[in-house]
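User: quick one, sequence for these tokens?
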């Protein structure tokens, strides 16, 4: 069966089979997990010896079997991330959503981080409950911020070539992305540095800490 025939058959599949077919069609060269910590579709890649110190998560997505409202799917995904993976040190390059007809990619940037760091939000709701106060509020935020204006949308029936080219270019495992540090992600990045980088630096940290303390006392003498 060729690609065109497979794409025509996608709406007939249940969600589990749909995810497997999407993986075979577009992500065959990547590692893939279904239902990983409540997230429907996770794409990642090994970086060899560097895999423990860089972001290996590439794409987290919400999957729907029927034709769906992508903003609602993104809302559900963001609540899922906040509820189950908020402290995940390796953020994906993109989040997104797909159904039997289309797929979108949205860069995981400071705006997404800012949404996840809203401490006043009740993240303990059921992510798929569209009537919850959290879902309704977050759905409105996504619309107000026009997050989909930064998204990359693709329809399988006419954009399969462009979709594969996008994945090859932007999810290429040889491209190691840098993360800009800001007030929203500082604590997470710092703990990531402590866990993966600190011990690889040839420094006597106790001596360095004492030296810094002496330096501070010399600058700010106690009277």
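Assistant:
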């Amino acid at each position: 069966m060729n690609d065109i025939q497979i794409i025509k058959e996608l709406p007939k599949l249940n969600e589990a089979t749909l995810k497997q077919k999407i993986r075979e069609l577009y992500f065959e060269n990547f590692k893939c997990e279904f239902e990983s910590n409540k997230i429907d579709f996770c794409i990642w890649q090994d970086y060899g010896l560097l895999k423990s110190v860089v972001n290996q998560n590439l794409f987290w997505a919400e999957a729907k079997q029927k034709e769906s409202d992508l903003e609602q799917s993104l809302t559900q995904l963001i609540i899922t991330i906040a509820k189950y993976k908020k402290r995940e040190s390796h953020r994906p390059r993109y989040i997104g959503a797909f159904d039997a007809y289309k797929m979108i990619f949205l860069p995981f940037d400071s705006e997404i981080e800012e949404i996840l760091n809203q401490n006043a939000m009740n993240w303990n709701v059921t992510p798929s409950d569209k009537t919850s106060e959290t879902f309704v509020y977050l759905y409105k935020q996504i619309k107000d911020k026009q997050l989909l204006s930064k998204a990359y949308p693709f329809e399988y029936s006419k954009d399969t070539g462009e979709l594969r080219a996008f994945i090859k270019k932007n999810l290429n495992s040889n491209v190691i992305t840098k993360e800009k540090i800001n007030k929203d992600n500082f604590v997470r990045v710092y703990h990531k540095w402590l866990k993966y980088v600190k011990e690889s630096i040839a420094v006597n940290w106790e001596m360095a800490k004492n030296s810094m303390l002496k330096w501070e006392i010399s600058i700010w003498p106690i009277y």
